[in-house]
Amino acid sequence: MNSTDLQHQCRMSDIKKAPVPSEPPPSYDATPPNPASPAPPKKGAPRPLPPLDLPTLNLLRGRRTILASASPRRKHILATIGLTNVEIIPSSFEENLPKSASPFEYVLATATEKALAVYKQEINNESKGEPALIIAADTIVVSNSGDILEKPRSEGQHIMILKSLRDTGIHRVYTAVACMAPLESARDPGYALETAVEETAVKFDPSVTDELLLAYVKTREGADKAGGYGIQGMGSILVEKIDGSFDNVVGLPLRVVLKLIEKVIERSQDADVLESGLIEEEEDEEEE
Amino acid sequence: MNSTDLQHQCRMSDIKKAPVPSEPPPSYDATPPNPASPAPPKKGAPRPLPPLDLPTLNLLRGRRTILASASPRRKHILATIGLTNVEIIPSSFEENLPKSASPFEYVLATATEKALAVYKQEINNESKGEPALIIAADTIVVSNSGDILEKPRSEGQHIMILKSLRDTGIHRVYTAVACMAPLESARDPGYALETAVEETAVKFDPSVTDELLLAYVKTREGADKAGGYGIQGMGSILVEKIDGSFDNVVGLPLRVVLKLIEKVIERSQDADVLESGLIEEEEDEEEE
Q1: Among the options B138, B188, B205, B243, which is catalytic?
Q2: How big is chain A by its Cα radius of gyration, in Å?
Q3: B3–A197 C-beta distance less than 8 A
Q4: Residue of chain B nearest A45, judged by CA positions
C-alpha cells in the first residue's frame, strides 16, 4: 500500500487543450444482444443483474433460509449473491461466553451457539416448515494487545477507543460463521454444521487528527459497532489499509459463507444418500 | 489473513440449552438523550446520521462541487462524507494516453487531464458560476506481469481475464485522484491542483473453480469494469484478500480524497491571502 501526494499550482495559461475524442473502441456492453442471454446493461442506468447461477443457490430458492442476525449489513451482503428472501430471526443466544477464551475460540463458539439457538427454535415450526439453511455470524474486534473491544458505552469512551486504535498500529477483526442444514433423511433427524473463522488486520491512519476522530464520533455512525467504527461508511476515512477480506470487517465474509453453504447443503444431502444405501455408487462418480 | 474451516455433524441430542439471558449491559445507544446533541439512533431503524462536521466540508456546502466522473460508485462513496449534492460532469478527456508510461504515471496523468478538461469547460460557466471544487479520478487494474487490464470486450475474453487473475497470484489496483479549486483571488486567475495515487494489492482465491468464474461472468456485473470484477458486489466471492484501501479498488480512496480536498481548498484560499498582502500576519498564527 502506497500513497503519494503531488502538489501543483498552475495558471490559466498552463491548461493544455484536451485532445479531440476519437472513435471509442468497441465495448463489451456494445456487443450485439444475444436473444438467449440477458440484454447487456445500459451504462449509467440502474442495472438489474441476473442472479448467480450456482446449483446450491438455485436449490435454496423458495426454501426457508434464515439469517440468525439482525444486522442490516449482513443481510445486504447476502443479497449481493441473490439470497434476497432471507428470513431474519435474531438468535436469543446471549453473547456472554467467558472472554478468557482466545478471541478465535470466543467468536467461533458464539456464532455456533447463535445458529444452534435458532435451529432449536425453528426445526419444529409447523406453520413455516423446517428451515433449509441457517446462517449465523459473530464479529469481534481485537486490540493490538489482544483485548476484545466492545461497543462504546459513551461518547468519551468512544473517542478513547478510536484514539487507541489509531495509536497502536494494527488491530484485528474476526468473524465466525456457522451454517446449519437439517439432514434430509427423515429416519435419522439431525443436522450438518459447518463453521469458519476469518481474520482481517486493520491499520488506522496514524496521522488522523483528534479533531477528525471527534467529528466522526459526533456522526454516531460507530456508536453501535464493536470497535466504534463502520469501515463501509464514513469510518473509511480513518482506515489506511486492511490486510484480508473487507466484508469480513463489515460482518460477513461472503466468499467464506458461500463455501460453507455449499459444503453444508452437500453434507445434509450426503447423509440422505447414506440412508438410502446409495453411497458406493455416488463415490464412483467423478465430479466435473 | 487466515481462514479455518471446521466440520461437525451432530444429532438432535447434541443441542445444548441456550443460557438464560441476563440483564443487558447499558449501551451507548441507551444513554439519556442530550438536548444539545442529536438523538441516538434506534437499533434496526433507518438511521439518518448527522453529517461529518469538518470546516472544509462545511465550506463546500451550497457551492458547486463537481465530480468529473459518471461512475455511480464514486458518487456513492463521496456521499458517505456528506458530499451529496455533487454535480456529475463526466470529463470529455479521451483516455488515450500511451500505455508505455508506467501504470503510476499513466493513471496520474489521466486523472489530471480529466480534472483540467472539466475545469476549462466550467470555469467561465455564466449561469452556474465557477465551481468551488472539481474531483476527478482514474482507476486501473494492473496484472502481475505489469500490463494494464482493460474492460473485457467479450464474454470469452472476460473469462480469460478472470482465470488469469486467479492463476497469477496478486494483481494491483491504482486509483489516481486530482482535486482542483480556482484561486480565490480575482486579480490573478488560476487554480490549485492536488493529486495522489493510491495502490492496493488484490489476491483472488486460487481455489475458485472455472464454473464459479463462468457463473460470475454470466451475471454481467464485471462486464463494464476494468479487470472484469466488482469487488463491492458479487465479485467479492472471487477475492481472498486485499492489502491496502478497499474503496481504492472500488474507484475512489475516500481517506485520500478528503485529505486532497482539505489541501486544495486551503491552498486556493492561501493564494487569496497572498494577493491581499496579509501573508505575514497569517504565518504568525498557529494552527489549532
Answers
A1: B138
A2: 24
A3: yes
A4: B72
- Cβ-based neighbours of B124, under 8 Å, separated by 6 or more: B130
- Residue A188 is a catalytic residue: no
Q: How far apart are CA B1 and CA A240, in angstroms?
A: 17
pTM, to two decimals: 0.82
Nearest by CB: A18 against B27, B92, B189: B92
- Please write the tens of the pLDDT for every residue from B118-158: 999 999 999 999 999 999 999 999 999 999 998 999 999 99
Q: Give 10-residue mean pLDDT values along chain A (288 residues).
A: 50 39 42 44 61 94 95 95 95 80 93 96 94 97 94 96 97 98 80 97 98 97 96 97 98 98 93 49 42
Which residue on chain A is closest to B108 by alpha carbon? Answer: A6
Give the residue on A whose Cα is nearest the Cα of B113. A18
Q: Which amino acid is at A158?
A: H
A62 in Cβ contact with A87 (< 8 Å): no
Catalytic site residue from A138, A224, A243, A284 = A138
Check residue B188 and report its DSSP letter. Answer: S
Which three three-digit cell numbers place residue A5? 501526494
DSSP conformation class of A266: H
pLDDT tens track for B9-59: 444 434 333 333 333 333 465 444 444 444 444 455 556 788 899 999 999
Question: Chain A closest CA to B281's CA: distance in Å?
Answer: 22
Helix B210-219 × helix B155-167 angle, to 10°: 140
What is the C-alpha to C-alpha distance for residues A169 and A174, in angstroms, rounded to an integer? 17
The bridge status of strand A148-149 relative to strand A65-67 is unpaired
> Which one of B196, B233, B245 has the shortest CB-CB distance to A1?
B245
The answer to whether B29 touches B40, Cβ cutoff 8 Å, is: yes
In DSSP notation, A81-94 reads TT--S-EE------
- Identify residue A91 by its one-letter amino acid code: S
Phi-psi region of A35 (alpha: psi -120 to 50; beta: other; left: phi over 0): alpha
The answer for residues whose C-beta is within 8 angstroms of residue B135's C-beta and 6 or more apart is B65, B66, B67, B68, B69, B78, B86, B115, B177, B178, B179, B257, B261
Is the reported ipTM for this assembly greater than 0.85? no
Using the beta-carbon criterion (under 8 Å), do B16 and A92 form an inter-chain contact?
no
- Where would I find the H helices in A94-209? 103-122, 155-167
Candidates B12, B81, B153; nearest CB to A234: B81
* Structural Rg of chain B based on CA atoms: 24
pLDDT (0 to 100) of residue A223: 96
